[in-house]
Write a structure and sequence with these properties.
single chain, mainly alpha, 5 helices, about 0% strand, globular
Length: about 150
Amino acid sequence: MNWDSLDFLVFGGMIGALALIIIMARRNSRSPAYRFAMALTGVGAFLVAWINGAVGIIGNEENAANLLFFGVLGVGAFGALLARFRASGMAKTLWAMVLAQGAVTIAAVTLDLGAGTPAWPRSLYLMTTVFMLFWLSSAILFGRAARAEQRWI
């Protein structure tokens, strides 16, 4: 694998975005559950982008169907902005990401978007499970942080 300057620039931007997410988590809440949920969400998003760019999740990295995974991240970004990064809204957003992740997988398998690759569809099921666990864990932690905030109001 030969990286060019654009690859390094994109990877640096991804690292910077992850660092920004972690910094925002520290500033937005003192709750360990909230901070850990933000970190999990950030790491999950980083991995989606990195794996998709490097080798692809559906087929190979050149398969346009991989863009569907960025739709899941779009759901997360839109929901986070809509929720203003508050724990209760973030919990709902992460549940929406779980559903979106499942919908992407169902669509990919139903439409046979990765056919012809050696591990199809087992590799997709594995990656979907991993990412759904990231989103599900974060949703549960954000919910816990939201309940803790309610007790203090």
